[in-house]
Amino acid sequence: MSQKNTLSNKHFINWFRLSSPMTFYPLAGKLIPVFWVLAFLFGVAGLWVSFFVAPIDAVQGQGYRIIFIHVPTSWMSMFIYIVMALWAGLGLVLNTRLSSMMAQALAPIGAWMAFMSLWTGAFWGKPMWGAWWVWDARLTSELILLFLYLGFIALQASIDNPRRADKAGAVLVLVGVVNVPIIYFSVKWWNTLHQGASISMTKAPAMAQTMLWGMLLMALALWMYSIAVALMRVRAIILERESHADWVRQLSEVQS
């Protein structure tokens, strides 16, 4: 029993070491090329299936193909916000520097996904609804999500002290996380123009198999892309915040 406890303690210590910016920085550098390669491979496969293999929709024609970008970016905009809230919460509770840095690194990526979701949704909505924008419950709550991302970025930029900025940003993110289930369930809760989910955990997908594969491959590509960019951003944030540390000075000397 004691040997098992010793092994588990060693594993815990090893994982805990990764919370140090000094330890995480080189690891992130090794992982970035892996996720870029995966993003490229999933992206090429997803675009091929979505635009050349998936059949034409019987009702919407070729115009429906924008959903292969719209739906995955919508998923990622919500998922990234939840992950950002988890990192921000960990930084607030445990006072870990890397957690707050990860939240800061994810915010612009989530904002870009939310913007792409709204932008592609507008291109889909114009021919289908006859308008670029309607004050639909899901569209409005997604717009609020974009404002939450931008608000977090602006709040952190307006506070000079990084630790105070992290705490203020964490509070904003944790309060705003309630908007994510509102986005997801808005179609069910209110009478809305937006169509319901084509993919559900409780029933078979309401689309052709090739359409489903195209959407899932694009979602994986955006997931890998988001991780790669987040790791690149957090490395830059680490160097900026830890510029006073000896290991950063030594790294700068080696690179120069």
Secondary-structure blueprint:
Blueprint: H1 2-17, H2 21-53, H3 67-94, H4 97-129, H5 137-158, H6 162-176, H7 179-189, H8 209-241, H9 246-255
Q: Can you tell me about this structure?
A:
The chain is mainly alpha-helical. It has one domain (27-250). 79% of the residues lie in helices and 0% in strands. The protein is built from nine helices and no strands. The chain has helices at 2-17, 21-53, 67-94, 97-129, 137-158, 162-176, 179-189, 209-241, 246-255. Mean pLDDT is 84; it is low at 6-13.
In short:
The chain has 256 residues and is mainly alpha-helical. The protein has helices spanning 2-17, 21-53, 67-94, 97-129, 137-158, 162-176, 179-189, 209-241, 246-255.
Please tally the β strands and state the result. Answer: 0
Strand content: under 5%
Count, helices: 9
Class from helix and strand fractions: mainly alpha
Give the biggest sheet. Answer: none
Number of domains: 1
Overall pLDDT score: 84
Could you tell me the radius of gyration in angstroms?
Answer: 21 Å
Q: Runs with pLDDT <50, length 5+?
A: 6-13
Helix residue percentage: over 70%
Shape: globular
Subunit organisation of the chains: single chain
Order of helices and strands: HHHHHHHHH
Distance between the termini: 50 Å
